[in-house]
Amino acid sequence: MNNGKVAVVSGGSRGLGKAIVQTLLDEDYKVAAFSRSESDFINTLRESEKYRGRFYWDAADAADDAAMKQFVLQVYRKFSRIDGLVNNAGLNLDQLLPLTNDEDIDRILNLNIGSVIKLTRNVSRVMLKQNSGSIVNISSIIGSRGFKGTSVYSASKAALDGLTRSLARELGSKGIRVNSLAPGFVDTDMTKNMPEKQKSQIIRRTPMGRLGETDDMTGLVRFLLSPESSFMTGQTMAIDGGLTC
Ligand SMILES: NC(=O)c1ccc[n+]([C@@H]2O[C@H](COP(=O)([O-])OP(=O)(O)OC[C@H]3O[C@@H](n4cnc5c(N)ncnc54)[C@H](OP(=O)(O)O)[C@@H]3O)[C@@H](O)[C@H]2O)c1
User: Which positions, given as ranges, span the membrane (predicted)?
Assistant: First the structure.
């Protein structure tokens, strides 16, 4: 079905990235992922006969520009093309802005938007040679809605949606599409330390009456990477159980 198609996923070791990597492998993509550290999931894939020659992972920090260039080069050397890019790696820090230090502000902005811009630039150069590609930016409903304690994160995701819209205009005529997926609150490491009171408040306000699961998100990623969405670009789509409706 997607035999021969190649997808790059940033932060594929756990959480949403892990679910995206597994979904794309199940869809017959060749998948290249990176994260700073390994996980049981990554090690199992690397050792599996089933995915031999179809899965590539490297330890790399998205904030390291040279490592990112090297990663894209390696993927291109190995698979000779890149059809999909899922910018998934991201970081949130639940903290009021007046209490947030410079290092944390820089870390969030650098990972959630700075490194995404650079990785996307590097990958788009490969896609331009092919005149085709689909880029999916994992944003957040917090990019368009305010939530106390997430100002820097919110700013970074709003910027990401801006990148989606302008890049869609830049690359559309070259057959490359760019869209954002904006999840609501999803049950991953990112939300595991959220106070129970806050969690139940969110669940109460969510029409579907629960937090999201990573598997709630993967169908849209699969769709946005596929030709089924061939006329969709520059859009931000929320999957949040109706929280923002
Ligand atoms: N969970 C939610 O409720 C929620 C809601 C809306 C949007 N999102 C977005 O969804 C995306 C995934 O979130 P998640 O909940 O799955 O997070 P997560 O469980 O914390 O996983 C983050 C992934 O990114 C990798 N990563 C983090 N920093 C990195 C760096 N500097 N360089 C390379 N890889 C890095 C992590 O691996 P290492 O730590 O090993 O590097 C891990 O694989 C993020 O963009 C997030 O903003 C999440």
Answer: none
